[in-house]
Amino acid sequence: MAIEKAKLKSKKEGVEIGFIVNNFFKQKENESDFELIFDRGCFHSFDEKKDRITFARNVSLHLKEGGQWFSIIGNADAGPRDIGPPMRSALDIVSAVEPYFEIVFLV
Questions:
Q1: How many domains does the chain have?
Q2: Would 66 be classed as within a structural domain?
Q3: What percent of the chain lies above the pLDDT cut of 90?
Q4: Which of 67, 84, 102, 103 is a plausible cystine mate for 63, CB 3.0–4.6 Å?
């Protein structure tokens, strides 16, 4: 559903974008490498540390040299709330991401 909405929006704006739905837990299979991967709601949904590490590693496998991963992650340091995405601590994020990426910005 989200991809269909994005396709309609890009068409309306006259922007040509190729959308691919992929399972990053599967091994890379001769796919095009990307300059940017945008993650809104995936990384922070994994409760197991090993799953977050696998996700980060596989994101890195799909990026071109110098590519960037932009991820919106619920921040455990922001304080409690009643609704919203799962929250991850800076340690959760850094321990999974830093073996594969340089963290440029973490708020």
A1: 1
A2: yes
A3: 39
A4: 67
